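Run log, item B.
One chain of 124 residues. Sequence copied directly from the ordering sheet:
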Amino acid sequence: MANSLNWFEIPATDFQRAKRFYESILGAEIYEMQMGPNMMGFFPMGEDQKGVGGAIVAGDGYEPSDKGSLIYLNAQPDLSVALGKIAAAGGRVLTPKTLVREDIGYIALFIDTEGNKVALHSMH
């Protein structure tokens, strides 16, 4: 098994607000698509589309939460860039940029516009 994780979903109550938030902090376009009854916004996966993927999802049963599993978004090369955009985009920083260890890198935690607790990771 190459990775333990291959897909994640971040719940949203206001899909367009969540999409604007993540596009703003990550500086990347989120492709949206109606998938059955759910609206989904796909995070970039890289050119080969073989990396870990994920989406913002709005629909029945998708309830934002600051409890439960914690997703770490790739904020390379330096999470300070994304972290610095969170408040202006409508989120709230919980934990500032913090060194875990030199070989692991840095993390930061935030609450997005929907009320989800999410984290950022980078090596610098």
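Observations after the first pass:
- Helices lie at 15-26, 80-83.
- The chain has one domain: 7-122.
Flagged for discussion on Thursday.
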